[in-house]
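Replying to the earlier thread about multi-chain prediction with a worked example.

Input:
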Amino acid sequence: MREFGYMRATDVTEAVSLLATDPEARFLGGGTNLVDLMKTGVENPALLIDVRELPLDRIEVADDGALKIGATVTNSDLAADPEVRRRYPALAQAVLAGASGQLRNMATVGGNLLQRTRCGYFGDTTQPCNKRVPGSGCPALTGEHHNHAILDWSEHCVATHPSDMGVALAAFDAVVSVHTADGPAELPLSEFYLPVGDTPHRETALPPGALITGVTLPAAPVAARSRYRKVRERASYAFANGSIAAALDVEDGTVRDVRLAFGAVASRPWRARKAEQALTGGPATPEAFAAAADAELAAARPLTHNGYKVPLIRNLVVAMLTELTQEDAR
Amino acid sequence: MNPTKSSAISLRVNGETHSLTVDNRTTLLDALREHIDLTGTKKGCDQGQCGACTVLLDGRRANSCLQLAVAAEGRAVTTIEGMADGERLHPVQQAFLDFDGYQCGYCTPGQVCSAVAVIEEHAAGWPSAATADIRPETGPPPLDDNEIRERMSGNLCRCGAYVSIVRAVAEAAAQAAAVRESAGDTTPDGGSGSGTVPAGGSGARVTA
Amino acid sequence: MTAPTVSAPSTPMAVPSVSAATAAAGTTTSPAPTRTAGSSGAVGTSRTRLEGRAKVTGAARYAGEVPFAELAYGWLATSTVARGRIRSIGAEPVLAMPGVLAVLHHENAPRLKPGVGMMGPDATLQILQDDRVPHVGWPVALVVAETPEQARAAAEALVVTYDEEPHDVGFSSGHPGLHTPDGGPRARTDTEKGDIEAELAASAVVVDEEYTTPEEYHTAMEPHAAVARWEDGRLEVIDSNQGSHAVAQDLAKLFFLDATSVRVRSEHVGGAFGSKGLMRPHLIVAAMAATMLDRPVRVVLTRRQLFSMVGFRPATAQRIRLGAEPGGRLRALDHDATSFSSTINEYVEQSAQPSRVVYAADALRTRTRVVRLDVPTPSFMRAPGWAPGSFAIESAMDELAEKTGLDPITLRLRNEPEVGPASGLPFSSRNLIPCFEEGARRFGWTDRDPRPGTRRDGRWLLGTGMAAAAHSAGTAPSSASITAEADGTFTVRIAAADIGTGARTALTQIAADALETPLKTVRVKIADSDFGPAFLAGGSMGTASWAWAVTEAAAALREKLALVDQIPGEGTTARADTTELVMAMRGQERYAFGAQFAEVAVDVASGEVRVRRMLGTFAVGRVVNPLTARSQLIGGMIMGLSMALHEEGIRDTASGGLVNGDLAGYHVASNADVPVIEAGWVDDPDTYNPTGIKGLGEIGIVGVAAAIANAVWHATGIRHRSLPIRLDRVLTAGTAIENSIGGGAVTY
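Result:
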């Protein structure tokens, strides 16, 4: 780890201007990902701007019913929040499944959105990696990739986004608030992550020097009937092999509203809009759920060793929506 | 601007304030072990992947290996050395000893710190990934074995003392509940939409 | 423990020793069986750990935690290529970095004596001696600096260039490089009894399958650490190891020092599982740097470095052929075990061992083959050979039970041998059948419907499985001294190690009884090479070996005390060394046995497998401390669960390195993976070693993976013959049960 300077910002404007003083500066939130990456040499900032104590630690209900979550709210506070648990239970469940209690106490909402992939080649600086060193190659394509992407990858990178929280946020149409030198701005989560293409090192559409200040969840009645399920290689404290956030509103056996998002299948949390379209207005049956999953997964291009993710996600869609249907019927 | 690469900080550890100059790269874990000679906090992976370095930061458990010391200034740190009340072990420590909740002992300080926090987090009404129904109206789940297992999963134990650890945590939690009850504080908060558990709030019973 | 240059025999050590089938003559010179009852009665009663308070308060200091004035910090730089030669090491710019004191590498490091090794020449000790790179993660330089941050930054900044050569890290049972290990006469790699092909051909029922296990890593929670310094003309070391005396001996030899001028201590060790049995690079480079700089130097390996420098269990591929009569009696048992080693040492994973011990068969053949690859040197990991070998043979026995329509326990009872199946030697004791009976009763095995896929709980298919377990229970020479102090207390000194086993407490109990004195009057000091030779904490032989030395010393002391009226101020001391006693032991087969039971839940739609409960019943000789014994057995079972479902080092064929060399990538069981587990034992009197102790550090892991795999079959009808039973494998394999209870579980 190279030497670096450290400064603590007290307000958002100051944080943004401090970052601008050094092209190699980074914001430091909970540090659970950045400090780790600095230890492994993946990140080498010259200056850290500590934003953890910025007054962005509130969760508030806006006049229009939207939930506004500050960027420095910790995972723990997010998951414990009664409004979140009541109105967006899948989000609380996703966060609870996301990391250990210790990490959740440290990790922030803003940092979670920006966490980097857990691809083993990315984390090992002795290996080529297009995301870390553009143009160096992607050993995962032909190497170890049993937990890599099946959707929307490119030959430049097959890594997945590791966030659980992000999957629930994607399902609920989250909007990311940012602050730049030009002032505040908003960015829908659906546009927040860039497609892999030939620039896997460019992960987000955040303007240069921007600070994430919060996330807004629009009011969505369907979200109150939502769930998150994560499948991983041990029962806890592991990244997902596949996960799903699902919300479902059924009336008289017909799907009125549905939200579906998948984790660990692509370079970003994957909103399953094709599946949602296929389901909306149709019957809430296991057959329809399976067909909708198939519609979404038709675009899947599994690699040699991760083809299991296609039936995994399909089975999760059917199981989760079936559960939610039965719950709805009660 | 050219900020220095080291910082003069004061760290409040187990109620005592330590003034020291640290390399900005120094983690809280290394500051404790190498600067203050509090080696009870262990370094198992140095990457947030094992939990051996768990301490309480402002009353909440955290991985001290991922916490820069310079960024911990002004925060209250409680380490394993601050758990006992003089010669009297913390009930969690006593339970680990009595139930043999350890073997080599290297993950133990982290397990103990984590367990102390788990009991407080549960009492504050926090749900976990093992909680079937997380709606606030449902109230906190009983701290059964599955809840303890999930909540303690951020602390790896390679000797495989988990079975005894779960027993020890359950025992200590039962004692803590009895203490709360006798103090008239019978209902854990957070169960009825009383608002976000404040930082360093209910989870902060153990403070420096 | 065994020499990397020889294979791991059932007597896993090279020092004079006795266990299993290698013992020599009579026990007439051995002492009367230990005074157990009638004395203070400490043995057999549960005691919390004597160092428990220190451990739960954080006061216990491990090797990397002892402070020294003027301490310097060493950080290793490791190779990034799998095979080749170092072309250049850019030390100059690194020496100019803040705080850097030295850069040690093959061109300037002290020369070490070649051929040194605890069990024969060990090339992994020859650190920084030449430009040869045998694998990714081989130490190529040590950077020493004033602070750990400076040392780390400098080691990371060090530019090393290589002349790279083509490498091969790909293992399979068909690898053309597989050969018979050249391990010398003690390394029994092959056994043959009867005509295996003829018996197979004549068998009514045949099982012929290959079973594979992946690279598995010890991942003790405490990273290997050492601090070395010169003091009063001695090299004083605090190290994390399993045997301070043996490490001190090798360290002295390696540095051309007199044995008395090296002292190694390791009071608390944060887990080992075999990885700390041999001297490891951190200690060697710490000693080098302390010598060059003449100040204390501490070197702690990083978690990632641990994945390339302290050994691991190599992957195995094992073909099992069983031939049986319709009634289940074995006519043929053929166990063909393959694994790999590095190019510099030939470590052999002796996976065929269990098949030489557990079942009678008319024809019995075991073969062990190894291939040398460009990988780090594997080493013994908890129950070397026994753990992966039992997965193969115990899975195959379950398949045979299925084919013969027999209950798995019944099948095993029909193949219970009278004498060692391969050796023909008698067993010192064999209480496997009581383990089956007691285990089956407590687990509720008898109610089991043998058909797969008959039980379901929601999305979970349920199944139960069992397996037999065996592990060698040897004894090795050790020495101990006991001092009767003037104040009426006793001080025991023995270079034992407590790596979490509870050895310190157990030896105190042993000593108290042997001295017929209350426990609180006995103080046991361990883990100091100055205490004299003692076997290491390994091979399930530590407590049995040390306890004998302690009881001998106690007997000698009592004789001495009988002759003195008053204890002088410096106390009265007696020493004992069991070398001759051990050498005089008669050849017998001595093993711990056990029966493992597991219940699993399998969701074939997600591939998730959860173990719902486990129960193990063991025959482990005399149990000294039931509290810690149970912990150790359960700990072994949990490592077995972890082996069954989680653990897998994934090696990248292109680079030759591990892709998942950290604790987020290499999964060991977390608390949430572990259910209620019960461990118990049956009476198992066995005074072949007069202490009656068999050791129970390893038996707990043996058979667990098979019991779980067999339970997964019982739940789903699918055999998983490759570990770990990963969710993608389960999901892809699905279930063999037609319309499994309540409709197809795989697809909707």
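The mean pLDDT of chain B is 89.

Feel free to reuse this layout for your own posts.
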